[in-house]
Design a protein that fits this description.
Helix content: 40-55%
CATH superfamily: Ribonuclease H-like superfamily/Ribonuclease H
Domain Tc1-like transposase DDE: 34-105
Protein name: Tc1-like transposase DDE domain-containing protein
Distance between the termini: 38 Å
Strand content: 5-15%
CATH topology: Nucleotidyltransferase, domain 5
CATH class: Alpha Beta
Strand order of the largest sheet: 1-2
GO molecular function, one term: nucleic acid binding
Length: 149
C-alpha cells in the first residue's frame, strides 16, 4: 500500500493511493518498488496538472539510486526528505493509523475481503478533506503560500 496527501492552494486536499496484493510465493516481491511509487506520483501529477513538491519519509525505496534517477527524469517534481525515524511528521502515517483503527475489531476470513475493506476505508477518506487537513495539522508542518510575502 502506498499513499500520499495532495494539497494545492485553492483546491480541496486529496488522498491518492495504490493498493497492491502480494500473493505468497518464494522469490516474489513482498513490497512496492520504485516503479510502483513513481507511478503513484505520476498519477497525482496527471490529476493535479501542476508541479509537485513531495515530502517523503526515508523508506529505502524512496531514497534508492533507482528512485533518484526516476525523480531526476521529472523536472516537475521536487523531493524533500523528512528526518529519519519521524513518522509523527508524516501525515500519511496518520492515514494508515486511521484505516487500521477502523479495521481493528474485524475478523476477515479471506484476503480479497480484507482488500475490499481497506479500499472502502481509503475511499471514504478521499471524501473527507477536513480529516486529511487534520492529519496534516497534526504533524505541525505548515504549507507556505508562495504568493504571500
Amino acid at each position: 500500500m502506498a499513499g500520499l496527501i495532495a494539497m494545492r492552494p485553492g483546491s480541496r486536499t486529496r488522498l491518492c493511493h495504490r493498493l497492491r496484493i502480494h500473493r505468497a510465493g518464494k522469490g516474489k516481491r513482498r513490497s512496492m518498488g520504485e516503479r510502483d511509487f513513481i507511478a503513484l506520483v505520476d498519477g497525482v501529477h496527471q490529476l493535479l496538472k501542476a508541479p509537485i513538491v513531495l515530502v517523503w519519509d526515508r523508506l529505502n525505496t524512496h531514497v534508492s539510486h533507482a528512485m533518484r534517477e526516476l525523480i531526476a527524469e521529472r523536472d516537475w517534481l521536487t523531493v524533500f526528505l523528512l528526518p529519519a525515524y519521524s513518522p509523527d511528521l508524516n501525515p500519511v502515517e496518520w492515514v494508515w493509523a486511521h484505516v487500521k483503527r477502523s479495521l481493528a475489531n474485524l475478523a476477515v476470513v479471506a484476503l480479497d475481503r480484507l482488500e475490499a475493506l481497506v479500499r472502502n476505508r481509503l475511499k471514504r477518506l478521499q471524501y473527507r478533506p477536513e480529516t486529511l487537513d487534520g492529519f496534516i495539522a497534526g504533524t505541525g508542518l505548515t504549507l507556505d503560500d508562495p504568493a504571500s510575502p
